[in-house]
Each structure stands twice: as C-alpha cells, then as structure tokens.
Here is the input.
Amino acid sequence: MGPSEAPRGALAHWIVIKNQKIENYQLVVPSTWNASPRDSSGQRSPYEAALIGTPVHDPAQPLEILRTVHSFDPCLACAVHLYDGQGAKVGEASTSPAV
Here is the structure.
C-alpha cells in the first residue's frame, strides 16, 4: 500500500504481488474523492459544491460547467451533459468536436 498527497488531493495505491507477479492492483486517485457523490451525511463533493450557483450563459452549451470541472482536473471532463430537474437533457459542452 502506498498513500501520498498529489496537488489535486489524496492518492493511494494497493498492490498484491504473488509469485513475483502483480495479482491485483487498485488505486484511488484524487478525482475519485473530488467527484464522489454525497457522503452518508449528505455533504456535497467538491465538484458539486463548486457548481452550486454557477451562472450558465447558454444552457444548450454549458461551457461554464465544463470549465469549473476542469479547474479541479483538466483531464476529467471531456464532455458535460446538462439535465433539468425532470431528467430531460438541456444541453452539452465538449472539448472535442464530437461528444
């Protein structure tokens, strides 16, 4: 087991070696913590908390949401899909031409 702190948060690796070969390898990266759902006490994840009150100029293309998530992890959000309270898709934004 190897825990450490990365600039984005906690990072941990678990490796099981059997007969000089890796039998199991698991890791928990900062994005796992930052993008997690609410905890058992209802506390929001950092991503969700940062999105509360974010103004969106064009709901059909919510670039502000994409930028906010990128501020935590520039490699994570290649696309953001925005849904209303009833589950209907409102819009999407992408860092690439095809979503």
